[in-house]
Amino acid sequence: MNTSATHNQRIAKMTFALVYPLYLAKVEKKGRTKEELHQVIEWLTGFDANKLQDLIKEKVTFELFFQQATLNPNAHLITGVICGYRIEDIENTLTQQVRYLDKLVDELAKGRKMEKILRGL
């Protein structure tokens, strides 16, 4: 799926610090914990809680966030629809990576077992 250049640019320039509190509120509202959110983010990106806090303080964009990340080799197993887009069909790499993160947060909020979210560890 080809997203517009404007859409991709908007995602690239969005800061992780802006979105992180929304992720946290979403999962906590559904009874999940900050630690579980951090576990999901670390699985996808390799960032531990301390590194996440540094990135939030630095107000890094998603573009820098994913440039610094070591994406999990099993990230390609994250499939499905998020925000109206089929993840596996997104052609822009950065947009796809952000949607991977969105999908993992959604699965966590929906009560999916951690083993399934992390694609069998």
Automatic annotation (TrEMBL):
Domain of life per record: Bacteria
One Pfam family named in its UniProt record: DUF2200
InterPro entries registered for this protein in UniProt: SP1917_dom_sf, UCP033199
Name of the protein this chain belongs to: DUF2200 domain-containing protein
